[in-house]
Design brief:
Elements lengths: L10 H18 L25 H23 L3 H34 L13 H18 L2 H21 L16 H9 L18 H20 L4 H21 L12 H24 L3 H11 L2 H17 L8 H9 L1 H31 L6
Helix pairs in contact: 1-2, 1-9, 1-10, 1-11, 1-13, 2-4, 2-7, 2-9, 3-4, 3-11, 4-7, 5-7, 7-9, 8-9, 9-10, 12-13
């Protein structure tokens, strides 16, 4: 019998993952950063926009997939050593891919334009690095603790991080400072990573300390995935996920009255608020795909979802290549494509959105080719 590479996966979770990665590409590749609709911009500092949901939703999905991954390992008869090896390999590959993305821009500028790369200013952290580290820490907890221990760990992370941000003083500025340049998060990143290895040398939105609450995001996803896996398929599951989601949104909003909802700091209020929205989206995907069996609705996003990391990495490399290549008048090829193919008929703002939508569509075609051949990136 031919092995099904998608066996043991939850189709609605793949749909949700596809929605998240499509949103990530859409947000990351506008035609021009000067012309972006407000919902596709991250909040300038405190606050929340739809763009601020994309990354925590992806981390939530990472956690939600863990119960299915563990079940497959147990069913295959693989030993604990093989499981630990798989986890470690996945983490190392994620971190390595993230570092390659960070190095791609200076390397391409050197290769294509002859600029000398400044490796001393290479950024260390990033999206893939955060996914890898948060996944590693969450898996350590998941494999070591029972349900009560995991709930206690998630609460301890969220409450502890809140306490640290509020009460641990930063030299000169004191405690409770949530500004970009003077927060405890920035202080520790500058101390450990050093300014030259941070995002644009100022503040790192995927820094070290703020990775800890991201572990709680993964754990909340794990709780949801484990419950869905045990429950019988039905709209009762949808309603329970939706109720939990509404509770999370309300609790996060209330918490945000005393601790700002802030993606860059990944505040505890942000974790709970974003998790609430993730639960609501998972509920919608679950109802569509698992309960109503409308697989054709979820399938286009499933195509993206089963190769999400490959899409994130490849789209990042191609975007960097288009920015590094130059046309005759000195503009990047990326800008030339936007100026020449989209602005004339759609204008700057709608043209910028159209550029991003076409980018997502082209990547869908590329990933569909992989999907048809049964090629899935396994980390």
């Amino acid at each position: 019998m031919k092995h099904d590479p998608l066996a043991g996966r939850l189709a609605s979770l793949d749909m949700f993952r596809g929605l998240a990665i499509a949103g990530m590409v859409l947000v990351n590749t506008p035609g021009s950063w000067d012309h972006v609709y407000a919902p596709l911009r991250h909040a300038e500092w405190h606050g929340f926009t739809p763009a601020d949901l994309v990354f925590p939703a992806f981390l939530f999905i990472v956690g939600a997939a863990v119960p299915f991954m563990l079940a497959n390992y147990h069913a295959s008869g693989a030993g604990r050593g093989q499981l630990y090896g798989r986890i470690l390999r996945r983490v190392l590959l994620l971190v390595a891919l993230g570092l390659i993305l960070n190095a791609a821009t200076p390397f391409l500028h050197w290769a294509l334009q002859g600029r000398t790369p400044d490796w001393g200013a290479l950024r260390i952290m990033g999206v893939l690095q955060r996914i890898g580290l948060a996944y590693l820490l969450a898996m350590i907890l998941i494999l070591a603790l029972g349900w009560r221990g995991l709930v206690a760990a998630a609460l301890a992370i969220l409450l502890g991080y809140w306490a640290v941000l509020e009460w641990v003083p930063v030299p000169v500025f004191g405690p409770g400072d949530h500004r970009p340049d003077t927060s405890l998060v920035t202080y520790l990143d500058r101390l450990i990573l050093t300014r030259s290895h941070m995002y644009r040398g100022r503040f790192d939105p995927e820094g070290l300390l703020s990775t800890l609450p991201a572990v709680a995001t993964v754990l909340i996803g794990y709780f949801a995935g484990a419950w869905v896996k045990r429950a019988s398929v039905g709209s009762g599951v949808t309603l329970a996920l939706a109720a939990a989601g509404l509770a999370g949104v309300a609790a996060g909003w209330v918490w945000g009255l005393v601790l700002p909802i802030n993606k860059a700091l990944w505040t505890s209020a942000y974790v709970v608020y974003a998790a609430g929205w993730s639960l609501l989206l998972l509920a919608a995907c679950y109802e569509i795909v698992e309960v109503r069996r409308l697989r054709r609705v979820g399938w286009p996003f499933q195509v993206l979802g089963v190769n999400a990391i490959a899409l994130f990495f490849a789209s990042g490399i191609v975007a960097r290549l288009l920015l590094a290549l130059r046309v005759g008048d000195g503009r990047s090829l990326y800008q030339w494509l936007y100026d020449s193919l989209f602005v004339p008929w759609a204008g700057p703002l709608n043209g910028s959105l159209a550029f991003a939508l076409v980018t997502v569509a082209l990547w869908w075609v590329a990933l569909y080719a992989l999907y048809r051949r049964g090629w899935f990136l396994r980390l």
